[in-house]
């Protein structure tokens, strides 16, 4: 398998030149645009890896799948889906436009920034620190990596430049979708996006979803099968933003991308996959990671459709 992964990395690396590293969060601009890595964690406990699989990067929007699981466990789906919808947008991940034009005024889904900020506002905890530490501990548990922590530099960079997210959050408070202190809620959201991971961590989170919320190895059910199904369905319909439809046709695997360059993918009953390539396409998805998943899906027949 690792030979196969080496071949796929070698034949895909050229495409990293066709994208660009995100710079709207200034600290992300420091990444090396030609890095490309992959890890597969399968149901039998095997880990296969290749390329820059052990480079650390920030999880960014991939964290939206994890905060959604915790918010659903904390509140139940009636409460959560009263405040955030279930439909793809066709707009960019940070788009503001539909917040005012759609009635009732609530974000269309939890994978876009506006929806994810609502989800973070719903996490239980006596204050922002407890909310974030519950989320971090949950992420440590499902990835099997108790060392996960935030990249302070990226966190501060996003906090000082995240005015579009701030604007959306204040708007949502005004229309009654979000309650509480907006700066506190954004602190949780910016911190969750700044958690440092590598391809192995993402592959293990993908495997956890592929295995219906059970930690493989220990057999411990951490999240209900129903919640993991909801999350995987969002990954199919909205996980690659306004590129989700094409990704479903070309690759056919539930996946979630982040502007840090990661993609976390879950092939039900088979494996989790983590990819890293900070060069992004025009939709904000890792251009190299997309290509790796495309090649792998064809080679191993991974499409769920
Ligand atoms: O809110 C933001 O802009 C980032 N923290 C996360 C966005 C992100 O990863 C979008 N992904 N492609």
From TrEMBL:
Substrate binds at residues 61, 113, 158, 165, 189, 241, 259. SUPFAM superfamilies: beta-lactamase/transpeptidase-like (SSF56601). Transmembrane segments: none annotated. Pfam families: Glutaminase. It catalyses: L-glutamine + H2O = L-glutamate + NH4(+). GO terms for biological process: glutamate biosynthetic process; L-glutamine catabolic process. InterPro entries: Beta-lactam/transpept-like (IPR012338), Glutaminase (IPR015868). Keywords: Acetylation, Hydrolase. GO terms for molecular function: glutaminase activity. Its EC number is 3.5.1.2. HAMAP family: Glutaminase. Belongs to the glutaminase family. Homotetramer. This is Glutaminase. It comes from Senegalia massiliensis. The gene is glsA.
